[in-house]
TrEMBL record:
Ranges annotated as spanning the membrane: none
Domain of life: Eukaryota
Name the record gives this protein: Uncharacterized protein
Source organism per UniProt: Pinctada imbricata
Pfam families associated with the record: LRR_8 (PF13855)
InterPro entries on file: Leu-rich_rpt, LRR_dom_sf, LRR_domain-containing
Assigned GO CC terms: cytoplasm
PANTHER family found in the cross-reference section: MULTIFUNCTIONAL ROCO FAMILY SIGNALING REGULATOR 1 (PTHR48051:SF48), PTHR48051
Alphabetic keyword roster: Leucine-rich repeat, Repeat
């Protein structure tokens, strides 16, 4: 890793460091001192969780300036304690690291980042347990999960506890989950849900009670259920009265229920690509799709 601690403070004019796709295996103490980066990208490197790879003082001198940190596609098996010093971090990406268990999302790191974290991204095919320490992120606005071990088929009902009223966007991709997590129903202000490439969900896994439907309050605006093993339009669609955009791409829709579309006349964008449809659903004529010149 190059040094930014020289006396001429060469890094003062730079705000983003992109050192992705290298062979960086360790950071030094005060790696970014005198270079007040707000965003550091270290994805696709060879960093691991040991203190010789990421020492506790790796971010000394930049504890308050780093807002976004991308450590995706490295060799982390747990969250390094150096993260506890990033007092203003708002985005952390640790996707595609061999982090397997809940305890690997270390209590100290998650708690220390809890007050500032707004955007958290994790997941890999090695992930066998849902992290319980997510509940420290009580200001979280975006959560992205990309990859889960086949051993983890159900997200615990309390999996989204702590940010039920703050989360606006949830993305869950490439898992072996057998259903839309029931805990999503508690996300009162969720606006965007991308639940794609979860082929074991199938029709039985898309339950009405798994979605945030609160009386006359309908916050969900965008929903994608692409490649989820569906063969029919989910019944829940007709209850999502605020929905504006719906995508069911890559599902083999043998049966299309007009009734499930008729209940929802707010949709203005609908995509059904690669669904093997044999007819155009008659209920499409009742959707309030925009008029284009």
């Amino acid at each position: 890793m190059p040094s930014f601690s020289s006396a001429d403070r060469i890094g003062l004019d730079y705000h983003i460091l992109d050192a992705s796709n290298n062979r960086i295996s360790y950071l030094t103490s005060s790696s970014f001192a005198n270079a007040p980066f707000t965003k550091v990208i270290l994805s696709n490197n060879e960093l691991n969780s040991s203190t010789t790879s990421i020492p506790d003082n790796a971010f000394n001198g930049d504890e308050k300036s780093i807002f976004e940190l991308d450590l995706s596609s490295n060799h982390l098996t747990s969250l390094p304690l150096a993260l506890t010093h990033l007092s203003n971090i708002t985005m952390l990406d640790v996707t595609d690291n061999p982090i397997a268990y809940s305890t690997d999302f270390t209590y100290r790191a998650m708690k220390a980042m809890g007050d500032s974290m707004r955007d958290f991204r994790f997941g890999s095919q090695q992930l066998e347990e849902w992290p319980k320490t997510l509940n420290h992120f009580q200001q979280l606005q975006k959560l992205e999960v990309d990859g889960i071990s086949s051993r983890l088929q159900v997200v615990p009902p309390e999996g989204f506890r702590g940010f039920e009223t703050t989360l606006l966007e949830l993305n869950i991709h490439h898992t072996s989950l057998i259903g839309v997590p029931i805990g999503i129903s508690k996300l009162r202000n969720l606006q965007t849900l991308h639940f794609d490439d979860n082929p074991y969900v199938k029709n039985r896994g898309v339950l009405v009670q798994s979605f945030p439907i609160f009386g006359t309050s309908h916050k969900l605006r965008e929903l994608t259920l692409n490649n989820d093993g569906l063969t029919k339009f989910p019944e829940v669609i007709k209850y999502l009265r605020g929905l504006q955009s719906l995508s069911l791409d890559e599902n083999i829709l043998d049966f299309v229920s007009d009734a499930n579309l008729l209940g929802n006349i707010t949709i203005n964008s609908l995509t059904l690509r690669n669904c093997k449809l044999s007819r155009v659903p008659g209920a499409l004529s009742d959707l309030q799709l925009p008029n284009y010149p």
